[in-house]
Amino acid sequence: MVIFDTTLLIDALSGDQKAINAIESYKGKENAAITILNKYELLRGRKFSEQQTLGKLMDGLNLYGIGNGEIVTSAEIYRALRTKGKLINEFDILIAGITVANNEKLVTNDKDFKEIKKLGYNNFIVIV
User: How many domains does the chain have?
Assistant: First the structure.
């Protein structure tokens, strides 16, 4: 399974061909998912009509939540980033923690995830 990150989905909805191609490349090959945080990021601040469109997009995706394992992994990632002086957005750390704890791949075009990749999580996070 792959997890699609918020920036990738927003770019695809905006017509960005690179993002659309990345999403299309996984169709039929792997199940796709988002995290509860991605869903929140996508829906917050959107008009009701936009929320309905996004809701239809997300209906076909699995949804990962946050449990103990995800929190522990996120905290480990946070500490490692803090030690290196490379802190990033808290939501991105939590999304990475969910991804790593569930042994999945994150498909993203958010450059902040490169800092997590540098920590040795290369098998889990894919930068598009």
Answer: 1
pLDDT at 95: 97
Instruction: Give the CA count within 13 Å in the CB-facing half-sphere of 126.
Output: 15
Q: Identify the domain containing residue 40 by its residue range.
A: 2-127
Q: Is the pLDDT of residue 45 over 90?
A: no
Can you give the pLDDT at residue 106?
95
Distance of CA 47 to the CA centre of its chain: 22
Rounded-to-integer distance, Cα 18 and Cα 12, Å: 8
Nearest C-alpha neighbor of 60 from the set 86, 34, 21: 34
Residue closest to 95 by CA, chosen among 116, 118, 119, 120:
116
Cα–Cα distance between 28 and 93 in angstroms, integer? Answer: 28
Structure confidence at residue 36 (pLDDT): 95
Please enumerate in sequence order all residues whose Cβ is within 8 A of that of 38, keeping only pairs 6 or more positions apart, or say none. Answer: 3, 4, 5, 6, 9, 95
* Residue 15 C-alpha from the chain's centroid: 19
CATH code: domain of residue 52: 3.40.50.1010
